[in-house]
Amino acid sequence: MANNKRKLRPRINYRHTLLELSVNRKDPCEVIRELISNSYDAGASIIEIYPLLQYSGFIFFDNGIGISDRQKINGVTPLDAFFSIGLSTKTKGDSIGYKCQGSKLCFASGKFALITRCKDEDESYWRRVIIDNPRDTLDSENENVEVSEDRQPWNTLLNLLHQPDSRTTAILQQLNKDYFDSKFKSGTLILVKYLEVDNFPHYYSTDNDYPYIKSYIRFYTRHGDVRILQPETTGFSSVAAKNFKTCSSSYNDRCHLFLWNCSSKTGNLEEIPIGYPYVIRPEVIPGLEKYVSYSPAQIKQLTNGKFYDRSADTFKFGGFNYCIALAIDGNRRALDYYQDLDRGIYNQYKKSGIEFTSQRGTFICSEGVKICRYNEIFSHGSMQEYAALNDSKAQSHYLLVINGSFNLVTDRNNLSESSLKTLRDPHFIEKIKDFLDRTYNQSKVFQELIERIGNQVSPSKTEVQVKQFNKTKSKIIERDYFYILDIEQLKDKKILVPITGEEHGVGALYTLLSYFVPSESPYAHLWLRPLTFSGQGIDSIAAEYGDNRINKELKGLEYKFLFATDELFNHPLVITDQIICWDIHQSVVPGETVDDGDYVGEINKSEKLQKIGFEIINIESKSGSVHDDKISIICLKKLIDNTFNCQWKKSRYSQKKSGTKSRKR
Length: 665
Hints:
With 665 residues, the protein is an alpha+beta fold.
């Protein structure tokens, strides 16, 4: 029998593979993301990006260690690895890019040039590589990449950018001989012309109010590292920020990135802030300090929320360190801060081109770079308590990032199967749940957001309502309460103090006590007698005190737990006579305005409401018409305390937390 054994010589079509890599992009600025990652891996402290609008390209510079063609790492020099596929000098966990594939996006262009110099080599010259039509030129079977010395790289740029217009000339004047002699002691400069990007100016121009490339750098690149918490401005714990900094060798918060602003003929470099643009804490924004106390349960419409909270921690799994951060910012607060993001699908809402909704929810990040959404983690059975976070109504109120050394697929925009296996591991999910449980127990804002969204998302599910009912029952013992000693029928009845979300409870309590008010009380005129209750429109229509025939002018009542002025008043001021609230926020002071969308009024002190509340005066429509009546804002807690002889009690739970005792008036 003949011996049919033989050996094959497997061959790789480099050109075909390169074609796939160089166009395998999801975003026109993705090449910038990859170059920034390489610069961070190279230890750069300065990055500069110059869009070349005349040539549909860019110049990218960093002052890192340079790309050596002498020192071998992992059996290959960095310069060889740059132009190769599958070869890398980097180590997973220590570097952002370790497959040496991201830089291939530069080759989807008409011309590519690289100028580099290393710290530990002869500083009298630079190395240069210039390639026309890189995808067609590069071939693994031929040594067709020529590396040459360059002693005057500023002239090389002049030759590469022939017949420059005023925009390009300004950049060339910046990148002159002095620039190379002083700033370019070591590092790498990459020039790309005729990048295969449709509508190049739309993505790379910086001459509008909300440049896409500027937002892209902050939200999607290593310069916008999600691990840089900046506690002094964002409100994260300084301990968590320190832990984030020390748990990864790739962490770097010392790199300065500059983007060339081509809005003028001379141009200038604008520094882009480092770190992911977490919404800064309220007291950092002038005039918004008061918004920090408004929790999800205290507002009528959750979409108007300006609530805020922060939580972050680190954990280990499978020998790797992971960072997790939760930034809660109510929808309205986030919209006010992210002014550069698109608000909707219509042209009039277009800004930078990056959608607001694309930055909210849960994301997986690798070495600080935000990679992809992962809201499906809340579909796991053990995460049932937090399933509401998977709903789009919840996602506009928070950002949850889970960062680690995750393996990515070729285009680095999605997770590999090994990474997905980690994320689906029950023990890994338990780590995430432990973090959320701790946050839930420590954060009133997070508790209320989960409960509020849970009720909105699944109001018809029996198990949700049963769970909420049982939880409310178990919490009754923790509620503060009071007795009214001078009403025989009520003196031995414990009356619970209303809590956030119980607006109708405020109305019910006001209605009940209105029937027991002594006629001689100096506050009797403030106790109207509600005749109706409504879930829509004005909360109650009421008769004046003592009007048993209901033949006088009827009044409109509105009930609130906490009265504040930071959001639109949810009923027309012109049909409201009294606002009954359990408490009035400390920010409500004379001179503040109340706005219902059509009419605006002014907070004022009132003699008849002294120690009880305020009144709204000077009510005018935005078109100029005037409403002559005044509106009383009454603090029900103070009204009860002044009308009746009350004994106020704190629950044992409250006393334990605050150290206070009950008070008898």
